[in-house]
Design goal:
single chain; 272 residues
C-alpha cells in the first residue's frame, strides 16, 4: 500500500517530501530534503514503515504474536532462543540499567516488582531464561529510540543527508541542517520553547496532565506524580529515550551522575 505524501520540487533542485502513517501506537511523520526523485523517496519511506513494522512484531510486548510476548510467556518455564536483534536489544537494556543506577528498568511491569526483578533475567549464548515467575519485559521506554537509530542508518545508506523523523512528538530524529541550512527548528508542545536540532535527537518523557501517570520509579515501584516532563537532546536516539525517562525520575544528584556518563547536549525541564 502506497503511503500518502506531498512532494514539492524547489528551484535549487532539492525536493521537499513529506509523508505520514500510524505505527507504535502513535503517528509517524517524515520529512526529507533531497535531490532524489519523488519515486526514490517513496521507496525509502516504504522501507522505514517496514522497519517499524518489523520492530513492532519483534519487540511490542502488547502484541501476543511478537517475539517479546513469547519470551514473557515462556522464559520462566524454559530457555528461549532469541533472534540476534532482540538479543542485542535486551543486552543493551541490561547495560543501560547499570549505567543509570537502576533508573532505567525494563521489568517494572513484572508481578511483585522489586528493584531486583531485572536480576532474574539471564541471557547466555543468545538464549534467555527468567529465574523467577512473574517477570515481564516492557521495551516501551526505549524502542522508539532504537527504531530511530536504525532509520538513521538506513537514510545514511541511501545518501539522504537532510531528514526529520517524528514519532508521536516524543521522539524526534533530525539529520542535516533542514531546508534553509539553519537546522531543524522545533517548538516544544508544553512550553512553545524553540529547539534547533542539527544531527541530533530530541526525546521527551513525563506526564502531560495531572491525571496521566505512566512512568514507574524503580526505587519505589510507584508511578511518578505531577504534570511535568523532561526533554533531552542527544546524538543518539536510543540513549535519549533511556535518559529522558531516567532524568524524569532522577534526583538532582542522580542527574549529575547521568550527565557524566552519557553524552547529553541539552536537558530541558517542562513543568506544568
Amino acid at each position: 500500500m502506497e503511503l500518502p505524501h506531498v512532494y514539492r520540487p524547489q528551484p535549487n533542485g532539492v525536493g521537499l517530501y513529506y509523508t505520514w502513517f500510524s505505527a507504535m501506537h502513535t503517528r509517524v511523520d517524515i520529512l526529507f530534503c533531497s535531490q532524489k526523485t519523488e519515486q526514490e523517496l517513496e521507496a525509502v519511506s516504504s522501507h522505514i514503515r517496514q522497519y517499524i513494522a518489523d520492530i513492532e512484531l519483534m519487540a511490542n510486548c502488547f502484541n501476543e504474536h511478537s517475539e517479546l510476548a513469547q519470551v514473557n510467556r515462556l522464559a520462566w518455564h524454559h530457555e528461549i532462543a532469541l533472534s540476534a536483534e532482540l538479543n542485542q536489544i535486551l543486552t543493551s537494556c541490561l547495560t543501560f540499567h547499570q549505567q543509570t543506577n537502576g533508573l532505567f528498568d525494563i521489568t517494572v511491569d513484572s508481578e511483585g516488582y522489586s528493584p531486583d526483578s531485572i536480576h532474574a533475567i539471564r541471557i547466555q549464548d543468545s538464549h534467555i531464561r527468567f529465574l523467577k515467575p512473574g517477570i515481564r519485559i516492557n521495551l516501551s521506554g526505549m524502542i522508539k529510540g532504537y527504531g530511530l537509530d536504525k532509520i538513521h542508518r538506513l537514510l545514511k545508506s541511501r545518501s539522504i543527508e537532510d531528514a526529520l523523523v517524528n514519532l508521536g512528538n516524543s521522539s524526534v530524529m533530525a539529520m542535516g541542517n533542514g531546508s534553509d541550512g539553519k537546522g531543524w527548528q522545533l517548538s516544544l508542545q508544553q512550553t512553545g520553547e524553540q529547539v534547533c536540532l542539527q544531527d541530533q535527537c530530541l526525546t521527551t518523557s513525563g506526564n502531560d496532565s495531572m491525571a496521566r501517570r505512566h512512568i514507574v520509579n524503580p526505587a519505589t515501584g510507584l508511578f511518578v506524580d505531577g504534570k511535568r516532563s523532561v526533554a533531552v537532546v542527544t546524538p543518539k536516539a536510543i540513549e535519549g529515550e533511556v535518559l529522558s525517562t531516567a532524568m524524569f525520575i532522577a534526583t538532582s544528584e542522580q542527574r549529575q551522575q547521568l550527565l557524566t556518563r552519557f553524552q547529553v547536549n541539552q536537558v530541558i525541564d517542562l513543568n506544568g
